[in-house]
Fold this protein.
Amino acid sequence: MMINKKLWLALIIVLAVIAGGLIYWQSDQPKVSAYEFVGQVNKIDGNTVSMNGAFVIKDHPELGKKDSLGVDVSLTANTKFQKTVLYLPTTTTTFTTADLKKDIKTVSLDEFKTDLTNNKVNISVHSDKNIYNSQTFSASGIDYILPFSEPVQPSKK
């Protein structure tokens, strides 16, 4: 009976050491959170956007993926779409994007789909939940920029 008690004690000690090691190892790992994914749309099928891009990891940018990842983003009735039309100058002068005229507006799902069907643009997908390393997730919001070149005005004589 004494051997059984010693065996149980040794087993409990071994399990405690293993559990302690796992807890220490887990606490040493960075806590990664990503609430944004940026990239290009491959396809829109119903309320699902298939795209390639990367997670935006604000607390650990060194963990950002260098390779493009494929994800499926679910659009819900609560997803907000924000379009920025950026007016590009038709001159060859140097400019910064901060100085350009822009219109920012909320658009519908249908307008979003039309804009992405007719233009190749990058989008930024936002989520209320941590989406890091998720292959599918729901979007709380989507932002995108459409560049627009203003027509050249004829010179007045």
User: Anything to note?
Assistant: Residues 16 and 82 are 53 Å apart (CA to CA). The chain has two domains: 1-30, 36-149.
